[in-house]
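Design job #97: recover the sequence.
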């Protein structure tokens, strides 16, 4: 009796194991790919450093495994142009903020005199102005998207 229960239990486990497989739309099971299918495969750099004593015994072992993309998504010169043009674009739209970013949040408030000597002055100012920070970050993100669109128009003319 014990033996049949163990066999039944082992059979149930084997039947229910579907590791590394996914369900398809038609209800069938397809094996999941074990390797990346992305076109842009990273370059892999593996370095192993070993140090031995005078008797030949291993005394230090160090290794590093690095994956990197040498030219991810296109022309590296184009990416350099994209990055180098972004700062002037943002300075054009937010020049005052980049020069003195916290003035409007901490020093332009006439009511700051009341809590200036509290221990949590800056934290409280941040909490009171959190909606303004959020709005400013949203504006900056939309400007970044606008910059990407303008850059794309300039560099992808056909």
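Job complete. Output follows.
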């Amino acid at each position: 009796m014990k033996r049949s229960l163990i066999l039944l239990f082992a059979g149930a486990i084997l039947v229910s194991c579907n590791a590394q497989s996914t369900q398809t739309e038609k209800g069938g099971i397809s094996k999941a790919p074990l390797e990346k299918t992305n076109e842009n495969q990273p370059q892999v750099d593996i370095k192993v450093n070993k140090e031995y004593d005078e008797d030949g015994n291993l005394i230090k072992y160090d290794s590093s495994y690095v994956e990197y993309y040498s030219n991810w998504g296109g022309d590296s010169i184009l990416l350099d142009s994209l990055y180098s043009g972004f700062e002037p674009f943002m300075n054009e739209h937010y020049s005052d903020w980049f020069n003195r970013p916290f003035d409007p949040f901490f020093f332009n408030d006439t009511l700051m005199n009341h809590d200036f000597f509290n221990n949590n002055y800056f934290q409280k100012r941040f909490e009171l102005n959190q909606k303004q920070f959020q709005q400013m970050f949203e504006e900056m993100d939309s400007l970044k998207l606008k910059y990407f669109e303008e850059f794309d128009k300039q560099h992808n003319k056909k």
